[in-house]
Amino acid sequence: MTAISPQGRTEMLRADGKPVRVLIVDDEAALSELLSMTLRYEGWEVRSAGDGAEAVRAVREFRPDAVVLDVVLPDMDGISVLRRLRREEPAVPVLFLTARDAVEDRIAGLTAGGDDYVTKPFSLEEVVARLRGLIRRSGASSVRTESLLSVGDLTLDEDSHEVTRAGRSIHLTATEFELLRYLMRNPRRVLSKAQILDRVWSYDFGGQANVVELYVSYLRKKIDAGCSPMIHTRRGAGYLIKPGE
Amino acid sequence: MTAISPQGRTEMLRADGKPVRVLIVDDEAALSELLSMTLRYEGWEVRSAGDGAEAVRAVREFRPDAVVLDVVLPDMDGISVLRRLRREEPAVPVLFLTARDAVEDRIAGLTAGGDDYVTKPFSLEEVVARLRGLIRRSGASSVRTESLLSVGDLTLDEDSHEVTRAGRSIHLTATEFELLRYLMRNPRRVLSKAQILDRVWSYDFGGQANVVELYVSYLRKKIDAGCSPMIHTRRGAGYLIKPGE
DNA sequence: GGCGTTTCTCAGGAAATTCACAGGCTGGGC
DNA sequence: GCCCAGCCTGTGAATTTCCTGAGAAACGCC
């Protein structure tokens, strides 16, 4: 089930019409808060736990639709936490947070089911998208939300990562894809370069703000080439996407 | 929920019909005062805190709908304050105030979800607009306010920054946009050049007062061209906007 | 380890915007 | 009808903002 909020953003709802519930299990307060705030803003109900014991308690009481689990925790490792979570709630999908070098072999074993993972440092856009995907596939929301975003004759499939303009398939790199997705999830809304940077680039990105300009430029070459432009610059304010003409 | 005040200004109200509450956290007394006065005049309830400890206390008692947070504070840096605020009130949206050059290092990673920031020196119009946006999207006011302002056949969308007159789209620069927004938020009310300067230009603007005349002139060329004029001069008093005829 | 791809920095140039200045215009008091 | 403060607006220059090519560095895939 999806609902269009007054601001025009699409919200994810559960079968009973209540907001989706997410449990965040992470001992780094800063990260945990960053995620909480972001997910709340997505319209979800969030609860967070700082260690494994708390997580198990929370999953029992809170009955989340999905769990974000940092695999490095102070009192138990992620695997034990996972095991105990699963004992409580076998079907709940889990999004693992992991360091880049804490290689894929371990994670691969964990994510065998419907689970997924992102590596630190991640972008908020990525976490939100993965979570949406997990929840969508888990069937927590009764009416399946579409994975297809569209603005005018431009479409973007969040599952297959396929992008088309006027039926024509377009190849995008990972960053280009995330930028376009963020724009398309906020059509007709001006997004500042700072907002884009905070959302699409990873939280520890320390580079120049003009990467945003650069990637907008890349996108335009691929998206708006030969067509009426959909990506618009609002000088001094930011960028927005809207149907051509 | 919006209400039209007796003077014709639109006010923002919370679900319970009470005014919106804003907490200002800033150690520069002058700036803090300026903001307080401005926000009170907007019809909001304002409380201010000069340091982090006070801020934490205030957020606990006052339960603000939004926080304005200067990231440079005497006793704690903005990040710690933010963290402690969030522990008290996880969902409260924050508007960060920051120096222009400090932007790129630290702010990334702070702004999550609905948060936003403005760089010093800012214009009051900008701060108010951002705050309104933050509160509007956070859901503090039960009936969400529209992002669309309209006076006669003139409309201004604060989200898309789109302006139309009689259905015809009009391109405005950033300053023109802010000036028009200020006028349109105060329809049928005479605004003096001094008021406009104080509100639309940044607080450290040191230029000639006749920029206001200049920008009114620009606006007229774009807004009132060929139509019955909506922007009127009250000689010796100021300007006002009202529907044509 | 090599090679193509992707990400990002840097810097030059183009374009839009902001603003000062100054001369012209106007309304209203006399 | 005259005058002047107050207002309007054309011109142009400084500044800001944005766009984009070139190339270095990092990454990922055999």
From TrEMBL, chains A, B:
Molecular-function GO terms, alphabetical: phosphorelay response regulator activity; transcription cis-regulatory region binding
Residue span, Response regulatory domain: 21-135
Source species: Streptomyces inusitatus
DNA-binding region, residue intervals: 146-243
All copies of domain OmpR/PhoB-type, residue ranges: 146-243
Listed SUPFAM superfamilies: CheY-like (SSF52172)
Taxonomic classification: Bacteria, Bacillati, Actinomycetota, Actinomycetes, Kitasatosporales
Protein keywords: DNA-binding, Phosphoprotein, Transcription, Transcription regulation, Two-component regulatory system
UniProt keyword annotation of Kinase present: no
Matching CDD domains: REC_OmpR_MtPhoP-like (cd17615), trans_reg_C (cd00383)
GO cellular component, one term: protein-DNA complex
Name recorded for this polypeptide: DNA-binding response regulator
Modified residues (4-aspartylphosphate): D70
GO biological process: regulation of DNA-templated transcription
InterPro entries: CheY-like_superfamily, OmpR/PhoB-type_DNA-bd, Sig_transdc_resp-reg_receiver, WalR-like, WH-like_DNA-bd_sf
Top-rank taxon: Bacteria
